[in-house]
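FORM 12-B: Structure-to-Sequence Request
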């Protein structure tokens, strides 16, 4: 999409953040609205939380498949989806 060769150090195009955000929101298998895409130096960072490592890998695969020459850093954490196994003590 951006036509740059891999290894170029130009900043990403102005609309790439929005394009990736839209891809993640509108993709049938992903539909993630809780992720943010921000520019950092000469790359983009995808941040947020998802429920599994497999979902995080699918998101990365999708972004890299759609934007193969774009330097992307993934800062996606995992959230706990099961009930707590211990009682929380408040003091």
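FORM 12-B RESPONSE
SEQUENCE OUT:
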């Amino acid at each position: 999409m951006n036509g740059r060769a891999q290894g170029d150090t130009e900043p990403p195009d102005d609309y790439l953040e929005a394009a990736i955000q839209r891809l993640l929101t509108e993709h049938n298998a992903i539909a993630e609205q809780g992720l943010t895409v921000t520019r950092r130096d000469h790359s983009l960072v995808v941040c947020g939380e998802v429920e599994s490592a497999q979902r995080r890998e699918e998101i990365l695969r999708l972004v890299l498949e759609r934007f193969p020459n774009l330097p992307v850093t993934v800062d996606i954490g995992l959230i706990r989806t099961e009930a707590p196994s211990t009682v929380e003590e408040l003091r």
